[in-house]
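Attaching the record inline, Q. Sequence:
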Amino acid sequence: MTAPFAEIRLELGIHYGTVGGPAFNTSVISDGAGGEQRNSNWSQPLCQWNLGNKNINQAELEYLVSFHQARKGAWEGFRFKDWTDYSARDQPLGLGDGTRTQYQLIKTYRIGTFSTQRPITKPVLGTVTVYVDGVIAAGLVNFATGLVTLSTPPALATLITADFDFDVPARFSEDQIRYRYLAREGDQAIYELDQLACVEVRQPASLIQPLIADFNHVIDLGIDLQTVGGPIFETQISRVGGSWERRDSHWADPLGRYLLGDRSLTKAQADYFISLFRLCRGRAASFRYLDPIRGEQITVRFAEDQLAIGFDALAEEEALYTLSSLGLHEVRAVVVPTLKTYTVFIEFIPNAGSSWVGMHSRVVTAPILGIFTEYGSQNAPNDSKSGYLITGGSAGGYYDFFGGGSAFGINAAGIEGGFAISSVIEV
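Structure, as predicted:
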């Protein structure tokens, strides 16, 4: 089912105070010793913005309420102008092959030799110019999909590029809009707009981008007087009665944690952070940070999957932005435990009428004595079942057949008996 979408922009003028940016989805699994494994769940981000926490007049409130009602809250999508990222110039769309005439508008984010692409599906009317080897080309633009159809197929190996402005397909994140009356200035009532957020909606033209798990790039913070941080350990403190406590240290060595802090950005600096964040897919990829105390580069990742940049002002055609607190976490490689091989001697304790007797041995492989699970043939006589599970790594553990219940096996006659691990020997 196609999601409802209205080809109309939320017109708020210049959105001073709007905070937001791309948001990714990353799964991070820690090994308990400071190492971690990360999985990027999204190839392309979904941007999120907060429009609220500002004062607006009566006319602005009436427009917002009317627009929100026309969209039926979060139901219908619309166009949104992201003032931190709304234009692209000299963007490569592809190479001509002598027959192809259609090209998708794409914006490329690049740092050094690394790049990632974003499909543009909502170009702004009257802003698109397409070139073939630098010469303006005739054609049509679908402003609902971002698909360009050229009148003549570009010749083989010619470069197709484009200049354009664009909106982002979005929706309200909530079905309710909240505001509060503050005061009256002359004939205008003043209201406080509560948290009003918009979120980008996924489009069919999404590109699957390869993930760069780690790239050798040092984050450029200029003359950095705002980053706060340093080494950190992880200690678990438990109260054991009264004022006594137990302290367990989980990390043998510390890891760096840094907060870049709120800092003003020019347009070029905002573009840099957006490009770096998109290349890293939020928390997924690692890069380098120059620790001033250690005097060396360390491997870090972003601490969050959401980038938040506020649009503050437009002065003399130069936009000013604020980077909201953005954290960096030093990363440590996961230590893969060494696998060891054990011979487990299993004694069967039969019930009356059971034909299973004697001692059986199985060889299992596990990283740590006492924590292993092994599946395979049970190696007992007169049994039709083929699966077994060994849990525990010491005498008194259990040898459990599938279907047999906890610590019990079932023979061909359906007679139950118990199993116990009598000894475990490391090979």
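The chain has a mean pLDDT of 80. The first strand starts at residue 5 and ends at 9.

More tomorrow.
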